[in-house]
Amino acid sequence: MQVAHTIPELRAAVAQARAAGRTIGFVPTMGCLHAGHLALVARSRQEATFTVVSIFVNPTQFGPNEDFSRYPRTFEADRAACAAAGADLVFAPTPADFYPAGASTWVEVEGVSAGLCGEFRPGHFRGVATVVAMLFNAVQADVAVFGQKDLQQLAVIRRMVRDLHFPVRIVAHETVREPNGVAMSSRNRYLSPEDLLRATAIPAALAVARGLVADGEADAARVRAAVAARLAGEPALRVQYVGIVDAETMAPVDRIAPGRCAVAIACQLGSTRLIDNTLL
Fold first, then answer.
1. Angle, helix 201-214 to helix 220-232, in steps of 10 degrees
2. Is the pLDDT assigned to residue 65 strictly greater than 90?
3. For the whole model, what pTM was predicted?
4. What is the pLDDT of residues 116-125, one digit of tens each?
5. Euclidean distance between CA atoms 274 and 267, whole angstroms
6. Backbone phi, then psi, for 250, in 5-degree steps?
7. 274: how many CB neighbours lie within 10 A of its CB?
8. What domains, with CATH codes, occur in the chain?
9. For a designed S-S bond to 91, which of 54, 139, 179, 265 qualifies (C-beta 3.0 to 4.6 A apart)?
């Protein structure tokens, strides 16, 4: 497996792979890889014949009071995990190399980024869209794989790809979960075993929503209230939002159309912010 630290190194390796007739898959990450990330690598290998994994803790998607400085950085373990998972190339730039000095260009995806996490993390999706656009430009992949756990991010990226005509196919991979049902996240390592148990209230609340919709409930307010009530049963969770939205536009809905809508949750557990969602 190759490792590239600069865009010229990355482009040279990708060009060589293309010259050999290989198709390019891409998995963007911030490192601290877990089984969820490695599932994305495996999916990329199904979709393409040369997989690039980026490992880059992007400073522009963190707010001033968020965890950029303490976000786990585990490059050597990540590199070994990528090699074991069958990745062909790891791209690991530094912020100084990746962002040109004096950079002042941003990508903003309006509408779809406004609610949910966009409300609670101002500027977050501007940083996400900008760095992903830069990575797409650098990698020139045929397909890029994203996790369903970051539902709003997925919607933002899909809209950006559509609006800006990026020649890349976006594949969504189902959320990978801990044995207790909690969505896997690099930030789960901040949680104590007791907190990880408390966090099971989140997937349990999502299961309440799925059960109600499966039984024919279409009133979003009733489903939202049931989800909120289940979350309230775990007092350690501080709920930021429970949203029932169109899964493509992220717009709130009053009536649930099965197959088109999702319930999304964000909670604070101690100093750790957790998100999760399910399609309805």
1. 150
2. no
3. 0.95
4. 999 999 999 9
5. 5
6. 65, 15
7. 21
8. 2-173 (3.40.50.620), 186-275 (3.30.1300.10)
9. 54
